[in-house]
Write a structure and sequence with these properties.
InterPro entries: LytR-like (IPR046947), LytTR_DNA-bd_dom (IPR007492). It comes from Spirosoma profusum. GO terms for molecular function: DNA binding; phosphorelay response regulator activity. This is LytTR family transcriptional regulator. Strands 5-4-3-7-6 form a five-stranded antiparallel sheet, sandwiched between helices. 23% of the residues lie in helices and 37% in strands. It is α+β, with helices and mostly antiparallel strands. It has three helices and ten strands, in the order H-E-E-E-E-E-H-E-E-E-E-E-H. It has one domain: LytTr DNA-binding domain (OB fold (Dihydrolipoamide Acetyltransferase, E2P), Beta Barrel), CATH 2.40.50.
Length: 149
């Protein structure tokens, strides 16, 4: 597991391009008695807190909604979003690195967050990351060309 799976994080410009190419939809969220559309590609991570989900966006903002993480998971694109742990869902577009340390995997995201990967979900998560990176290469998005910018 010493091999580094993530070459370089994607730049914001590249994320925008990929969102267009893959036709990533907006996500409609309940917000203070109304509904608000949020671009799915701007979500870095979702964090479950009981019956609530805290969204972390690429601009640093956060939004708490009164829906469970399980309910939110069903609304997200499985091509882009992975659930490495029961309390977190991450957007693979913002994956910075995978850290295998002392039989415990964790990932770091471009916003500086670090999320543990549960042992039970580790092999499935790694397969999902590899599949995602292969898909990116089909779209001429070689990880080396996807330098942060």
């Amino acid at each position: 597991m010493k091999k580094k799976l993530v070459a370089k994080p994607l730049s914001y410009f590249l994320v925008e391009q990929l969102a267009d190419q893959f036709a990533m939809p907006d996500l409609t969220l309940p917000f203070w008695g109304c509904r608000k559309k949020m671009p799915m590609h701007q979500i870095v991570r979702l964090e479950g807190e009981g019956n609530y989900t805290l969204f972390h966006f690429v601009d640093g903002s956060q939004l708490m909604v009164s829906l469970t993480l399980k309910k939110m998971e069903s609304r997200l694109s499985p091509k882009f979003f992975a659930r490495p742990h029961k309390k977190n869902i991450i957007n693979l577009l913002y994956l910075e690195a995978i850290h295998p340390e002392h039989q415990q995997l964790s990932v770091s995201l471009v916003n500086g967050h670090r999320v543990e990967v549960s042992r039970r979900k580790a092999s499935r998560f790694i397969k999902q990351v590899k599949g995602f990176q292969q898909e990116l290469q089909l779209f001429d998005v070689a990880p080396t060309a996807a330098m942060a910018g």
